[in-house]
């Protein structure tokens, strides 16, 4: 009986210790996320008024107060007039959506900054005209369903790793400086319904794999230097 009691006490102590350790870890992560937002300088008009980062403009948190979304759309309530690199994305591992639309963000995005956000489902950089980036690390964002990068200064090629984004339904890098070919791995995006790569500098032939995208109902390849015809598909008429 005594041995049973000792065992029960030991188990309870383990559970309590684990609970406190988990709570401490969670609290540390929440503080790190708040610090990342604060240190960016983007929300300089928000944090003097309240220490609760979840109430700052454009920030969405879950019940555990982890940042799961950033949405800044033509807003004047934040001061996004600085280098993108000042926002430490590595401190925001729970981010599900990142939306910047027509805000003044300057500088370059390094590959690792976006590639580490493996929980992202929505990524939108729309007409952030002072932002420079490539798509080299995009293949790591395997949970993406929506990718809109229209009207920026994207350079380089569309990487073959684009084929890893098998949940993608919307792909729009229109109006950038992308060059090279459209990789044949585009055919792996079987859920894709919208594809617009117009107004870039893409070359070579149109890959026949586009014709296998049966869910595709909107396609624009214009204003490039592509050759060949749009492949036929039972799921898309052109």
Please tally the β strands and state the result: 15
- Low-confidence sequence ranges: 3-23, 234-238
Helix content percent band: 10-25%
What would you call the shape? Answer: elongated
Strand order of the largest sheet: 1-2-4-6-8-10-12-14
Portion in beta strands:
15-25%
Mean pLDDT: 82
Order of helices and strands: HEEEEEHEEEEEEEEEE
Distance between the termini: 79 Å
| Radius of gyration, taken over Cα atoms and rounded to an integer in Å | 22 Å
Structural category is alpha/beta
The number of distinct helices, counting runs of at least 4 residues, comes to: 2
> Largest sheet at a glance?
8 strands, mixed
Q: Would you mind describing this structure in some detail?
A:
By secondary structure, this protein is of the alpha/beta class. It is built from 2 helices and 15 strands. Strands 1-2-4-6-8-10-12-14 form an 8-stranded mixed sheet, with helices on one face.
Name the features.
single chain, 238 residues, alpha/beta, eight-stranded mixed sheet, seven-stranded parallel sheet, 2 helices, 15 strands, elongated, disordered N terminus, disordered C terminus
Task: Give a brief outline of the structure.
With 238 residues, the chain is an alpha/beta fold. The protein has two helices and 15 strands.
Could you outline the blueprint of secondary structure elements for this entry?
Blueprint: H1 2-40, E1 59-61, E2 67-73, E3 82-83, E4 97-101, E5 105-108, H2 111-115, E6 122-126, E7 131-133, E8 146-148, E9 153-157, E10 170-172, E11 177-180, E12 194-196, E13 201-205, E14 218-220, E15 225-227
Parallel strand pairs: 2-4, 3-5, 4-6, 5-7, 6-8, 7-9, 8-10, 9-11, 10-12, 11-13, 12-14, 13-15
Antiparallel strand pairs: 1-2
